[in-house]
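Table S2 (continued). Query chain:
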Amino acid sequence: MKKLFSFLFVLLLIGCGGGNSNDSNNSKITKEINTSNSSDVKVNNDNTVDTNIEDISIISDTTEGIIGVAKLGLLKNAILNIYKINIYRTAQRQTMGLTLLYQGKTTDGDINTAGRFNTHSSALDDNAYYIYEIEGGENIDYNEDGIEDNISVTNYGAVRTIVKGSTLKSLNDGEFKISLISERYFMQIYPNLTSGFFMFSPDNELKDNVNIDADINNDGEIDEKDVLIFDPVNDKSKITTYYSYSDNYKNLHKRASYQGQPIYIGWDFIGEPIDFELSQDEKTAYVVSAEGLRILDITKPNDIKSKALYRTARHIIGEPTTNMATSVLLSSDETRAYITISGGGLLVLDIKDPTNPIKLGSFATDNAKDVVLSLDENTAYIADGLGSFKVLDISNIADIKEKSSLITDYHANKLSLSKDGKYVFVSKYPDMFASSYGIAVIDVSGTDAIEIENKDIGGIGNSIISPDGTLLYVANRGSGLRIYNISNPNNMEEVVHLPIDYSDISYINFLNDKTKIFLVDSYRDIWIVDISNSNSPKLLSYIADGANKISFSSDNTKIFLITKEDFYIMDTKNFIMDTNVTFSDIPI
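Corresponding output:
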């Protein structure tokens, strides 16, 4: 059965100081949920973990409760999952887990009877917290006008909410609704509960993340009850929330069923990580952050250790932090790390001994954002932020010299080098002071760098080039995926545009077989797309987790990723990538 939470999700174990990477307790523990009886995880006083817990009884079908409604449109014959959130604390750390209490379905029928379900609220504890999840099913009111459609729309996604037992019991039959608004509410709260940075309070999270700006129940207060009773048929006109309701609504139908999500197996607190690279043997991670370069031993994912920290940042009391690292690139022999530094330029470190990185050379620029190397690694190309692209001679690393510089009218952010080494594709970052956004192509085959092509298509996260060098895959912020034919770099031609509604695609990369790519959405989404036919890319699956950058292991069994604060490792052995869902299945 396709379920979002196919596994017990027990999350970050918090140590004193919020993230000492030498503490093996900084791992994440998981245990599979059995639908007939569930096991939880307890943390003992000595900080060991005991998984031999007594069975938890599943709620009976006959248990009474108020009636809820699946209001993503109106979903009939959809799967209902009810989970209890379990929180275990010691003086030093906290874990969170889920117990699957009940599985059922929403009712069949017409507009007046379909989409209903028994919440079994009488079996809930007043002071406990629960997740209600509706997935799949048929939407018989896609346009949400309260009138049954002639043709139903298959739902491939899931909608959820988090509710306290006592709050649910205070509602009347038909008031409790699971909708787009409750799903966005869930996605704001759940990552905070699982972040592990603090001893979270579910009560505070439920109150502080109310994502609605209307008093739906007219009780004089905007709170979680307004989220829980929101009816899209009657209440859409009352809200003026910042995000596009219609785009989010279509997005939920397009998302592949969540199935077995990847499971966290390792974690290290970094503090504002920006970029990372892995060694070829995947035993070492090089992570740059606001502090500088941190080198991690990831041989044992559940026991990540810090090998070294090379600081680049300058902290002056009363002034903004400067010299923050913005990207990292390893030489082909992995003996050097090339680091761009905002306000500092290019820094080159000797990393032959990962416990003792040593400075080899540097070159000052205004606002370095990214670096790529020529095929012979004697030249470095620098995206120097707003107004500049630089070409550096690094053949003598102790005496780096500028070969040429190109003044631009845009914010040069991320770079990709063509397979023949003659062209650099520049991703232009959205900047209020820039006059253009999109992709620029710079010819670096001669003495001087020359811009030969410019596509103004909006802000770009980054781009990658196909193995044969003929296609450019572009993370188009706010628009989705764009694929260009770059056989003639002077005249790039768009092959296809795959829009992803209400998205901010900030990063793109290949899976290892190069027939799939993943797109990282800064709104906590990771999309996997089949590109085996570049003319017709197909959405395969979706990971409900936030990331700034991710990379799959060579065998695709692990995901390495950075978030706003941490470096993570996730196990993907049970994650089903191919769900055979295409965008064309859904009406726009």
